Amino acid sequence: MAVVLADLLHEENIALELAAATRAEALREIVSRMTAGGALRDAGKFLAEVLAREEVHTTFMGNGVAFPHARTDLTEEIVLGIGRSRAGIPFGENGELAHLIFVIGVPKRMVTDYLVCVGALARLTKDEKSRSALLSVGSAGELVEILRAGSLLLP
Q: Is the pTM of this model over 0.90?
């Protein structure tokens, strides 16, 4: 059965007001949220994998959005954590600021499902109106609803 974006959205995995000032701090903060549901076996190892991946090539996509991820054996299902920073976190190769950070853990066997989900997120966050809405929500529940509604409209 294919994974769909709506199935990955859980309010407890969302940090609406990141306290972080650096990429590593932001990733640590988001990953700590992702472990609450038990989907990740070892948060420290997963964080190290995500950071190592970022060192190889940034996942900053422009427009204030980043998709840090790791293909890993530390989860049996795709897990998604979301962080928002109004001030922005230096993320890109030239210090560009990320305001929306989507951290994805994906089992090595689920690459196709991962590509479908990240493609949906990329299409949703490419739209300025959607990004603006995600940046202005007041609760994790509202953010989830915007992403769910937007994913239903995708081709």
A: yes
